[in-house]
Design a protein that fits this description.
Distance between the termini: 37 Å
Structural class: mainly alpha
Number of domains: 1
Strand content: under 5%
Mean pLDDT: 89
Shape: globular
Helix content: 55-70%
Low-confidence stretches: 1-8
Radius of gyration: 18 Å
């Protein structure tokens, strides 16, 4: 009698996990570039931020930074998928990659994230570089040698 195989946890699962970790790290890098860029913009417009705690409070609750929340939430979703008890599936990874691709679509006349993201890409080369790295990872699964 054949034993049923447990949920995939072999090379395929490890590959999917690696891919999600790479994408998450790229999005985290992009998030940092966007936060740094927005901080500079905020300080040029409204004055210096007094302390790290004050900055954290602004990030969490000030409308100036609210547009960054969808990216923060996507990264948290990735963290939860990586920490889950069930093995990460290719379908779950692909769904997170699609969400990433949709979010990372800047729009000159866009609302909320897409419009602010477009502006950040126009003003900050660090954001452009981080964007390029993240976008490379949201495409279809690639074969590596």
């Amino acid at each position: 009698m054949k034993k049923k195989s447990p949920a995939p946890s072999g090379p395929e699962s490890a590959s999917v996990r690696r891919r999600l970790i790479e994408l998450r790290n790229a999005l985290l890098n992009l998030h940092k570039a966007l936060v740094d860029s927005e901080r500079l913009s905020y300080e040029k417009t409204l004055g210096q931020i007094k302390s790290p705690n004050h900055f954290l409070q602004l990030l969490i609750g000030d409308p100036w930074f609210a547009w960054l929340h969808p990216l923060s939430e996507l990264i948290v979703s990735m963290d939860e998928a990586l920490a889950g008890k069930e093995p990460l599936t290719a379908a779950a990874m692909d769904a997170l990659a699609r969400q990433s691709a949709l979010l990372l679509a800047p729009a000159e006349h866009g609302q909320e994230f897409s419009g602010h993201y477009f502006e950040a890409l126009q003003r900050d080369p660090d954001v452009v570089l981080a964007h390029a790295e993240a976008v490379k990872l949201v495409g279809p699964r690639r074969t590596r040698s």
